[in-house]
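Data deposition worksheet. Section B asks for the primary sequence of the deposited chain exactly as it was used as input, without tags or linkers unless they were present during the calculation. Section C holds the resulting structure in token form. Section D is free text for depositor observations; keep each observation to a single sentence. Incomplete worksheets are returned to the depositor.
Section A, Depositor: J.P.
Section B:
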Amino acid sequence: MTSTHTIEQPRLTKPQPVRCAAPLTKATTLAYLMFERPDLDLAETYLTSFGLRVTAREPDKLFLRGTAPSPYCYVVFKAAKPRFVGLAFTVPNAADLTKLSALPGASSIEAITWPGGGKRVQLRDPAGFRVDAVWGQQEVETLPHRTPIRLNAPGELVRVDDPQRPPFDPPEVVKLGHVLIEVANFQAASSWYTRNFGLIPSDVCVFPDGAPGATFFRLDLGDQPADHHTLAMAQSFMAAYGHSAYELVDLDAIGVGQRLLQNAGWEHSWGIGRHMLGSQVFDYWQDPWGDKHEHYCDGDVFTSATPTGVYPISREAMAQWGPQMPKSFTKPHINLKTLTALSRNLYGCEDLSIKRLKELIKLFA
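Section C:
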């Protein structure tokens, strides 16, 4: 059930993702994620069970939020087939939108008609995901959530004559924490995010030959602590959504949430455990279309001064304790679409090869 608590340093022979010395802008938050779903009612039922709250609903759109002051962090579009559309970052000022609108394939600056307003520029990253750059969105009132449970420790008794009784209530998502995407053109996608949004590689996981296989990127907020990762990126044979993560107040909220989600009949993916890189206590669930959503708490935070760590990639290094990552967690859906993408990318992406594909299958299939 447990894994080692230290990770051996690998020998590096390939270029690694690095921070950009002069990025076009420095993103300040992960604003929202966008999905397409054929059934908005079913999407709302799952997401509210998971702990998000509906902000607004239109015939073809659904907006959900946490207790943080963002007007929404999750957008669902009505569509014939389920699909992950993309993500959005907030940027510091209007001038950043002007700079980003000059990138190849970028939209012009447009008004946002969704809750909170603001302006945005729509971009496409090298993997094909939509990336919105947002500025001027109005925050809303923070919603109340319970305070974290106080824990007694040897020599530090903070709870006396006060039994521990966490409320058996649905989980309260505080905020959207991060999203993991899978890409075939790993180096190009990594460079695009560091160059255009100033993301910093917190940790890189490498294959035996030293080539990067996954990177955890954080926001560059200077001296202000930022979550260990806001965007995670993994080498794959095609572009795909991996999972997204949502912060809860404490471990008891994760445990109670697990019981309630099990009682509701939703499908569990992996957990409860504690990650190695990022240190989050985690629990993963699948929505009705098989997309993973993570509850987490107690994650690492870094200032911009912390250097990048580099570690060997392995299943065992995914968690300090708890169940080992199940093979079903990373097993791709094999169909005509995925086989076509594999055939195209195997000969069209310099980061992908027969050798790399065999390593990916050995590690995660």
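Section D:
The helical segments are 40-50, 94-101, 186-197, 251-264, 336-346, 354-364.
Residues 286 and 292 are 4 Å apart (CA to CA).
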